[in-house]
Sequence to fold (697 residues):
Amino acid sequence: MSARPTIACLLALAATLLAAAPAAASSPSPSVPQLLAGAQRLNADLALMGQGSTGLLAGGDRALSELRFRNSDGFTISVVASGQTVALSVSRSQLGGSRPGGKPGKVRKRSQTTTYLAHGRVTPTSIAASFGDRGRISVRFRPSGREVHASRKAGCRRSGGPSLAELGVFSGELRFQGEGGYTSAEVHRVPGRSIDPAALRACLIGASSSGSATLPGARPPFGIRLPGPVGGRLARAPRVPAVPTNPSTGPESTTLLADRKLALDRTVFAAQMRGKGSPRFLAMEEASEGSIGVVRVVYARGAPGSFAADRILSSASVSPPAPFAGDGKLQRGPGNARSWTGPLAVSFLGEPRVPLTGAPFGAWLSRGF
Amino acid sequence: MNARLRLRRAAVASVALCAALLAGGPATRAAAATWSKASADASARQALRFWTPARMRRARPLDAVPPQAGGLAGASTTRSGDGEGRGVEVAAEARSEFAQVADPTAPGFRQNGVIFIVLPRGLGLARCSGTSVSAPNRSVVFTAGHCVNEGGRGHWFNHDWVFVPGYHDGVRPFGVFVAKWLGATEPWIDGGSENADVGAAVVSRNERGQRLGDAVGADGIAFGLPPSQVFDVHGYPVEAPFDGATQRLCAGTPFLGHDLASFLWPGPLNLAISCDVTGGASGGGWTIHGDVLNGVTNYGYGDDRKTDFGAYFGGAVKALYEQASRVR
Fold:
C-alpha cells in the first residue's frame, strides 16, 4: 500500500493560503496571471491532497474552462472544470489594511471559501455535472470572438503562437444552494473563458507546448521543518510541490499546525507569524460526501499578539479573529507529549462552529529562519 | 479490537453480480496497456533459484523502496518493522484488525500470494500482494497497477516478476509463477490515475509444470457493481506493525465512501474501506461473497492507518481482465 501525503501537503496548503494574493479583478484583456488566478486559487485549496499545480491543471492538454460571477448576496461563485473534474467554489473575502512597505493596494484580511468537487462531463465547449442536493451545472461555451494571445505584455516569455484562451459566455443552467441556505444562485448566462493549457504552458516557459513545465499553483513559502509524525508520501508518484526548508533569507517565522484525520475527513488549523507582522490563521476541512467532495477554507489575519509562542517552543496560544471563535493553547509536556486544548472553533461557509482542538488533533509547533 | 475471520458467502448473488462474473460477456474494446514476452527469460526454475528466502525477505514494499537503494545488494533492511521475523507479531495482533490467516495454504486463501519484483534501474527488490483470478488460461494474477508499472508512461516492472501463492515465512508451498505478460488499465499507464490503479499478469507454469489455476484455484471477478459492497481484504503487509511473513485478512469491511483526492483524477471514483493495511499489502485482493474479486488495495494516508483505498472495478478493469484472459 502506498502512503499518501500528510504534513508536507498540509504545509503546501497552509503556505499557499496564508500567502495568497487578493483576488484579481476581472479585466477586459486578462493577462496570463489573471487567466490563471481562478485555477490557482482552486489549486491552493486542493493542495492538501498533494494535487496542487500538478493535479487539476497539469493533466496533459485537457481543456480548462472557467466561469465566475458575483452573486446577488455578495458571494463570488466560480466553476473550474478540467478533465472529469468540476469544481464549484463559493467565496467571500474582506480586504483591509495596507501592503507591507507602503505598496499600493490592500491585503486580504479574511476570506472564506468552500469548494464542491464532482465528476462530470467536460469538453472544450461544455460543462455538465451534478452536485447532488447542492445543485447542478449544465452549460455550453459560446465564444465572443475575443481571444487572449501570447505576448510579453500579457506575461508570456515571448509573443506569438496560438491563442491562450477564448473569452465568451457560458449559457445554460447553473443552480446551487449552500448548506443551510447560506447562499443560493440560479443563473443562465455567465462570462467565462476556455483556456488552452498547452498554449499557456508554452507561453510561460517560452518554448513549444510539448514542454514539461507545470503551471504555477501552490507555491509554499514556509521555511520550516515540522517535527512530529510525518506520513510517508508515496515514493512512486511524488506530486507534492517541494516545500523549501530553512531558506537563508527572510524574517523568522513561527508556525503552529494542528491536524485531525478521520477516515474520509480531515481538519487542519494553522497559525503563522513572520517577524513582526500580523499573525495569519488558516483552517481547512475536507470531506467526501457521497458523490461530491467538499473543501472548506477560512483565512484570517489577526491582531498583534493573537498568536504567541515562547522561545523554546514549549507552549503557544492563539486567539484568531472571526470567523474563528475562542482560543487554543498548545503545551509541550514531559517526553515531548503535547496537549492542544481550548474552545477554539471556526465557522466555514456551510458548516458553522467546527471545533479545532482536542484529542483527535495532532499539533506541532516549529520555527524557521 | 478482536480480529474477525469470517468470509461472507452470500446465499444469493445478485443478477448483476452473476452477469458480471468472469464466465460471460462479450469481449469489449481492449483498453489496457501491456508488456509481454513470448517466453519469459527467467524460467520458473531460474526464478526459484533467484528468489531465495533471503531475497524474499529483503524485498521491500514497492511504494517504500528507497530511491538510493543500489541494486540487488543495495536493498536495505534497516528500517524498523519492515522485514520478516522481527518479533512484532504479538504486538500487531493486539491492535490490528488485519488478522493473521491461520493457514495461507488452505483452500479459499491460497489463491492470494506475494508478488516479488526486481526493480529497474538498480532500485532493488520489491514486493506486493496479488490474487489468482479465474480465466480460461488459468494463469491470471490481479494486483495494483503500481505493482506492474510505474504509471504515467513510466517503466514496466518486467524483470523477474513472480507470483508466490500461499506464501508464508519464506516458504513457497505452490512454487513460483513467472510473469510472461503484464498489463494495467489505460488510465494508469497513460496518466497514473489513482482511480485506475489496477494491474494484471499472466504467468507461466510453475517449476512443477502446473498452471496457476490448477495449483491453487482462483477467485471469480466482478465489474460494474454498486460500490456499496462488503469486502474481505487480503494481503501481505510488510511495514510495521506487520512483518510480511504471512497472509492477513480484514473480514467484512464495508464501503465507506470516496477519497476526496479521487475527485481530481479521471475514472470512476475510488473506494474507501476500513482496514489497517500497511506497505506490502498493495495489490491485495478485495473479495465479495467470499471468493469474487472486486477491488485491490492501492494506497492509504500516513496519518490514518485505518483507512484503505482501492480502485473501482469498472470498464477499464474489465477490459484489462479480458485482455489478460486472451493471453496464451
Summary: The longest strand of chain A covers residues 107-123.
